[in-house]
Amino acid sequence: MTMKLEFELSDQDLAYFQRLIDSKSSGQGEIEMAHIVKAAESLLERARQANPPKFILRRLEQLESLVAMVTDPEWRLPVEDIRRILDAMGYVSDRQDLIPDDIPAIGYLDDAIMVELTCRNLRPELEAYRDFCGFREQEIERRHHKGGPETPVSRSDWLEARRRELHEAMHKRRGLFGRLKT
To answer: How many domains are there within the chain?
Structure first.
């Protein structure tokens, strides 16, 4: 037997959680990036071992995409976009959060809410990165297809062209998304 639970976060609730995210914003530099990435990976690993409810784990697993966006050497996000993502992920890098993680069943609920809010705020970045990964996989498959024509364009050439295109689309989406939220 399954049971459906729903709750709605009001604009006031969302503002509260956004303030929490903002208060945990990261500093500057590679050390902070490494710290936040490691903390996000560690949180996800601990959560998987704790086996929380699936609705919580599904949201926490979105951390993998956030981490990939800032660590993928071929994506090469501009520094200001990396900073924006790391600032949004700052909450999960702090072990002192609203609900202690070791409370059975609900310990990761606050983290799941924060990850969900972060992913909503970073939707343009996530969509652009998914597009980039899909393009990269298709291009790799196309270039390695037996009997396919050889092309003089290098991997770095097609990656750079596609990356520029997707970064522009991401910034346009962010502008559109921002206008829709107000």
So the answer is: 2
- HSE of 35, CA atoms in CB hemisphere, 13 A: 15
SS (H, E, C) 84-141: HHHHHHHHHHCCCCCCCCCCCCCCCHHHHHHHHHHHHHCHHHHHHHHHHHHHHHHHHH
Whole-number Å distance between alpha carbons of 117 and 135? 27
Structural domain including 179 reads 124-144+153-182
Determine the Cα–Cα distance for residues 63 and 160; give it in Å rounded to an integer: 25
- Specify if 4 maps to a domain: no
pTM of the model: 0.73
121-134 confidence digits (pLDDT tens)? 899 999 999 998 88
For 47-93, write each residue's pLDDT tens digit.
999 999 999 999 999 999 999 999 998 888 888 888 888 888 888 87
